[in-house]
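Hi V.,

You were right to ask for the full record rather than a summary. Here it is.
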Amino acid sequence: MSTAAAADPGRGTGRAEGAGAAAAPSGVLVVSGTGTEIGKTVTTAALAACALRAGRTVAVLKPAQTGVTGEEPGDVAEVRRLAGDGVTGAELARYPEPLAPATAARRAGLPGVGPGEIAAAAHALAERHALVLVEGAGGLLVRFDGSGSTLADAARLLDAPVLVVAAAGLGTLNATALTSEALRARGLTCRGVVIGSAPTRPGLAARCNVDEFAAEAGAPLLGAVPEGAGALPPARFRSAAPDWLAPCLGGHRPAPRGPSAARARAHAGG
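Predicted structure:
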């Protein structure tokens, strides 16, 4: 999979609105990651932008927003800024300290968010939208409430696939493999992997990792969002987003081929 798109994050092909409508995902898709600050929100915005271009109705659900107070804009607001006001945003809880949701809730004296509440909110949004993106906080097994519930528990209640957003550089393969293993152990589907911030000038590890993600995850590498994409003017972001994602995510980036993709299919039993 080429990293060429990272060289010009604002590059767009100018394809007509509605192109790729048949390929755009639908239903509920959970967006998790291998950690924090790796590009989940910008990746979620790219997914939403592609779906809107395909003529789909889109909602983004953030179960727990940490590190913000009052009327401060959070991740949902950032997704809507980048992808467009056509995105319906929903947030179930917010906590002032930038910590794991369960910890932030406890320290603020506020209730956590349970998987049943997350699933109910996602189901309600799915009744009115073709695509619902549920963006987690941190990694897959970060605790959301005092009972130790995680995003994986919500995904299981929803019977929804999980898209894993990963870092590009050294150390990411282990984190990706562990996340995918945790999904499989819970009977959840890893939809694929997206690099959340692909470097403009990738080093050796980032270049080599592109060919290894699929085998480590047992699922395909479905895109790479360039570093700095979130700083693009919204119009350029929306125009360029399809270049970053594979057709099954509503984009038109070529699907990976070759040994890594073949190993991923074998790993997944396909």
